[in-house]
Amino acid sequence: MISAIVLAAGKSSRMGVPKMTLPWGNSTVIGKVIITIQEAGLSNIQVVTGSNQKEVEDVLRGFPVEFIFNPNFTDGDMITSVQEGLRSIRGKSEAALIVLGDQPQIEPHTIKVITECYYSTRCKIVVPSYQMHRGHPWLLKRTFWDEVLALKTTLTLRDYLNRHQDKIKYVNVNTPSIIQDLDTMEDYKSFSP
User: Fold this and answer.
1) How far apart are CA 13 and CA 127, in angstroms?
2) How far apart are CA 123 and CA 115, in angstroms?
3) What residue spans of the chain are helical by DSSP H?
């Protein structure tokens, strides 16, 4: 089974408001991400919260997700949130899809391409690419989890992927959504449907 780990622990400091809870179509930013994951066929979804924990959990009430609180959400890049998510699925998943909670533009097709690539090749790391730009979400096979769990918070996920460049299977997608997330209110206004 592939589990989705949705990273939703950030402080939204550049946005100025809790960005995960902003409206997005008929849902919210984080709600649309969960809907997309479900439409792609994944049912085991872990949402890692930190800052704005209550607000994120409130807008996802009724969604079939499990919440994991990251007490170290202020430490490091997103490493601590990924680590919390991986700990929560140990023993029940063979791979983890690492998903940004502030990327509501991602499409079910993109997730399906990534998971199908994993099932057909059993690659250790599957990463989408748009015009030679690496993006999210990306998949990590269980055999690599221990190394991620041992990473220091001084490293970023980009550092980790750069270190394992030779293990990555890239899948080309025809959508810039994999490289677009919502960091500022300008991002939100320009990408919002």
Assistant:
1) 27
2) 10
3) 29-39, 53-59, 79-89, 108-121, 145-149, 157-163, 185-191
Q: For strand 95-100 and strand 138-141, is the pairing parallel, antiparallel, or unpaired? A: antiparallel
Tell me how far apart the alpha carbons of residues 106 and 22 are, in angstroms, rounded to a whole number: 16
What distance in Å separates the CA atoms of residue 97 and residue 100, rounded to the nearest whole number? 10
Task: Tell me the one-letter amino acid at 174.
Answer: N
CA 132-135-141 angle, to 5 degrees, is 110
> Tokens at residue 83, please?
């680590």
Tens place of pLDDT per residue across the chain (193 aa): 999 999 999 877 777 788 999 999 999 999 999 999 999 999 999 999 998 999 999 999 999 999 999 998 887 668 899 999 999 998 889 999 999 999 999 999 999 999 999 999 999 999 999 998 999 999 999 998 998 998 887 778 888 888 888 899 999 999 999 988 888 888 888 888 8
Domains within the chain, CATH numbers bracketed: 2-191 (3.90.550.10)
Place of tokens 């992927």: 161
Asked if 76 and 160 touch (Cβ cutoff 8 Å), the reply is no
Specify the 3-state DSSP secondary structure of 7. strand
Tokens 């800052």, located at residue: 51
Neighbours of 149 (CB within 10 A): 14
